[in-house]
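Hi Q.,

Before the meeting this afternoon, I wanted you to have the zinc ion prediction in hand. No need to reply - just skim if you have a minute. The sequence and ligand are here:
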Amino acid sequence: MRKSILLSLCLSSSLLLIAQTLTVENQFVRPLSDVLNEISTRFNVRLKYDIDTIGKILPYADFRIRPYSAEESLTNVLAYFDYKFVKQGNNVYKLKSYEYPRRIDEDGKKMLAYLNTLYKDQASWEARKALLRSEVREKLGIDTILKQRVNTKPILSKVRKFDGYTVQNIALETLPGLYVCGSIYTPAKKGKHPVIICPNGHFGDGRYRKDQQQRMATLARMGAVCVDYDLFGWGESELQVGGVAHRSSAAHIIQAMNGLSLLDYILTRKDIDATRIGANGGSGGGSQVVLLTVLDNRFTAAAPIVSLASHFDGGCPCESGMPISLAGRGTNNAELMAMFAPQPLLVVSDGKDWTASVPTLEYPYLQRIYGFYNATDKVSNVHLPQEGHDFGPNKRNAVYDFFADVFQLDKKMIDEDKVTIEPQSALLSFGKKGELMPENAIRSFNDVAVYFDKKLYSNLKSDAGLEKKATDWVASLQLENEKDASFVRTLIYNHLRQVRDWHNDHPYTTIPEGINPATGNKLSKLDREMIADSAMPKEVHDKLMNGLRRALTEEQVEQILDKYTVGKVAFTLKGYQAIVPDLTAEEESIIIGHLKEAREKAIDYKNMKQISAIFEIYKTKCEQYLNNNGRNWRQLFKDYVNKRNAEKAAGKK
Ligand code: ZN
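Predicted structure with the ligand bound:
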């Protein structure tokens, strides 16, 4: 019982709040969860939570509720915590955290209307464009990174020949020791070819997926050289910097550098026609298409797919990690893409993601800018209202048609059945496990961080450590299905991070000094630390456990929990078996039950001291149980110590 009383102390502060009379002196504070419950009942609306309300206290709470509107009340209440709501149907609202890159259509509409007031003809638009161009470079920080590039010969694989095209893998060193890996699809026909740089998005399996190979190879069969390459921290890049690196702002810069560097390289090839250079990518790859064309005026045709919007900048740090949308006192991807006018541009949109607004918002806006050059016929929009967020056949066909027209490719060669889908291993430069990585290759994100502001990425080092933990633990299970393994890895990694972040954000000093009611002693630092940590939302724990139980067998779940607690269940049980030599099967099973409970509680604590303290609580329970079961724990323990001492003494003789 020692600490279990203590752990519930943390709840008392919010209980106190409820008991208070609400007056201006206490700012009419109420717990956020109560206020939301009230809104839900009062307006008969259902609230779905993607946010944490625990410990959140709202001043002037009741005044924020407007009796005539659930939505206005929610706005007033949530804004205080930087939360927002998204309407999900009649009387259903999802509560979410503020997302800086994601806005609503209405914002896009207002923003484009505002932007349209900034230019009225080609001259004023050209002035705006020049400002945006320089400020995007500056906000991205691309030039300091480009300056540090090396110019070594790329590592090229053997050329693989297929029906009407060839494929060759490339590993190009960009910053010293940092490589970008990709594949180059080339028409079998001799002659000068246009080239299309194809940055990858976040669709599963990255550039190795079937529809990506179909698109690269078909465009090559039609007559264009296509270059695709891994996202930073994905595919072969993950071997160099780990997957966590992708969720950093560095990914935004490095991916832009990779696209430009591959373009530099490919233009050294004699079979490339430098007057026909395209960019094409879907989703996050589309965001990169926008950025590449802003950074480099060598591009002559562009096609962002299921990506372009005026109210969404791309939710991954590789798309919005650097504040490029703040260029020119505020811009968006529609305006950045408009900078491509009057060159040929295809925008593919669909009805089920944020690009649903393209026909009514972004496309008319683009047409106006293209109109400054009398080139409205150069910008087109293929909108697929029944389709969703993917790179499916209709989207690929739109891409084939577009590049066939602008680069004079051979439409007769459009036949995806002629494409050979290679296994992922064939598309690798460094081998399945990176065994072919060059000697100078960087093997940690920290070695990349030196090219940036080091302080910026200090948390990433810790993230990388947690990622390694999760990876090692899951590897020990030897799961056959990689999808399951990846799911469990992410689950554990997210949990470890949440535990760490909660611990770091809620130091022991947030718990007032006080007396431990169980012992009468002053609360120790560890006590206060544990009270603070025990207030972590229960959802964090449940999400991990439910996910583990869904993907793993009970035995495997236990193995993972043992990893968290470094085998403390087995170790402690051994102790009991030694101290109570005639431990019965029933006693053992009850002790194991307590220890397993301790284990599951302990996983939500950050360090070994805390984990041990949790086990102490349950050890007390075990010992109380033995006493109640007719044993004398004190005596047993004494006998055990005496026996050990006697054995030691005998050993010395
Ligand atoms: Zn990304």
